[in-house]
Amino acid sequence: MAIGNMKSKVFPSIFLTIILLVAIDFCCPKDDDYLNTSLYTKAIPSTQNQQNIIIKTPITIENYFQFIDSIVKKHDTLVPYKLSEHLLVRANSWIIDTLKNTDYYLMMQRDSFVYNQKEMIVLPTGAQLILPDSILAQKLLQSFQKTHIDINIPEFKLRIYEDTLKLHEFPIRVGRNERKYLKMADGVVDLKTRTGTGHIVKHVRNPDYYNPVNGHKYFLTKRDDGKVTKLPQIPFIETEINGVRNGQLIHPTTNPITLNKAYSNGCIGTKESDVWVIYYYAPIGTKIKVRYDLTVVDSLHQKLILEDIYN
Predict the structure, then answer these.
(1) Domains and CATH numbers, the chain
(2) Residues 208, 211, 248, 254: what is their CA dihedral angle, to the nearest 10 degrees?
(3) Residue 121: is its pLDDT beyond 70?
(4) What is the pLDDT of residue 212?
(5) Hey, which of 3, 22, 196, 221 would disulfide with 254, CB 3.0 to 4.6 Å?
(6) Dihedral (CA of 150, 151, 155, 156) sign
(7) Given a cut of 50, is residue 15 above it in pLDDT?
(8) With 0-12 CB in 10 A as exposed, 13-18 as middle and 19+ as buried, what is 229?
(9) What pLDDT is stored for residue 51 in this prediction?
(10) Where's the L,D-TPase catalytic domain (predicted)?
(11) Mapping DSSP to helix (H, G, I), strand (E, B) and coil, where does residue 94 land?
C-alpha cells in the first residue's frame, strides 16, 4: 500500500461517526482466557481495606483493554460500588503514565524506534493493581462528576478542569478553514471544528483509520521523521455538541508537527500521550465546551488577541 503524506488523510471527517463506528472493534474480550483472570493475576489482601492484584503475565497494548475489562468483570460483584475501567485505572495512575510513555515520539527521544506500538508491554509481570476501597472510589466518582473539558479553537488548546481547578492543558490541531469533497461523507463538507457545549458520548478503543477523501482504510502511517510505522491502538473520544453527534472526535495524530494549526478534517487532534490522559479523565458523560474566543489572558495575566483563523 502506498503511504504518501498521511498527515491530513488518516483521520475521519466531522461527518463520519456512523461510518467509522460500524467498522470499530470495541475491544470486548475475545479470548476466554482473559475471563479467567487467575491465569494472569493473583489477589492479596491489603492493610488498608484494599485488595492488591498482582500481574502474573505481561500484558501488551494489543491485549490491554481486554485484560482490564476482565478485571472489572471479575471484581465488580466483590465491591460495594460500581467498578469501571476508568475508576480502576485512576486508582492506579501509574498505568496512565505507562501508557503515555508508549508515544512513538517519546520513545524516539530515548533512541528507541517502535514499529508496532501494540506489541509494547504496559502491565509487566509483578506489577500491582489496587482495587480501590469505598472511600477512594467515592472520591474518584465525585471527581468525575466535577470534571469538564474546555477547548478554545483559535488558541489550539484543550484544558481539563475539576470545578475551576485546571488539571491539564494540551496543544491541539483543529479543522481546516475550507470546504472539501469527501467520499465518505458523499458530498462537500465544511471542515471547520464546530463550537458549542455537550458531553462525551462514546469511547472508540480500537479505531480503524480511513482516508475520508476516498474511503481507503489505512494500516500504516508516515511519521514526522519520515519513518513508517503501524498505526497505534489509542482511543478515539466521540463528542456530542449542541445535541448533535456529527463525528467531531478527540483523537491522537501520528504527526504532531500539525499541532497548533488548522489542519484536520474537523476533529480535535492531540499528541498520542495526551489522549491517554484525556481518555481516563473523561468517562462517558463528561461535559465539554468548544469555544472560539480570540481574546485570552496568558500566564502573566496579559491580554492577548489571537489570530482569527476562521475569519
Answers:
(1) 17-25+147-305 (2.40.440.10), 32-141 (no CATH)
(2) 70
(3) yes
(4) 84
(5) 221
(6) positive
(7) no
(8) middle
(9) 82
(10) 147-291
(11) helix
